[in-house]
Amino acid sequence: MDDFIYLNFTSTMEKVLSRSLSVYPTVHLLSRKEREVLVLIAMGMNSKEISIQLDVLPKSIDNYKNRITKKLGVNGYGALGNFAAENRVVLLELSIFLFPQPATEILKIRNLPFKEMENISGGGNRAVKYYFQ
């Protein structure tokens, strides 16, 4: 099955979160900062890179990771990385609302293979569908 990420820059965060939470119900247990850390893990960042991105101490990232593993019920950082990788599409979609950087820039920085499939404009809405190769 192909993985798609749908980015609608005029939709509300609640819409994305409700879809995300219906697929992955445990993600709603996380605080905003924990979600940010999880999204950055899904992008392939290590603790040092995450601490730089979020401008916090590396020890804080370890604390966030510990809380995330407990809340998601996964055992250890390896399992957390697996969870992030398995749910990458939803987490990357969530990243659009957590980080001000344009989605394409986030995807390019992390060297995630994608291409723009559709660029739909009209009625004041801008929606872009990306395909992960």
Automatic annotation (TrEMBL):
SUPFAM superfamilies: C-terminal effector domain of the bipartite response regulators. Residues 23-88 form the HTH luxR-type domain. It holds the Pfam family GerE. PROSITE patterns: HTH_LUXR_1 (PS00622), HTH_LUXR_2 (PS50043). GO terms for molecular function: DNA binding. It comes from the Bacteria. GO terms for biological process: regulation of DNA-templated transcription. This is Helix-turn-helix transcriptional regulator.
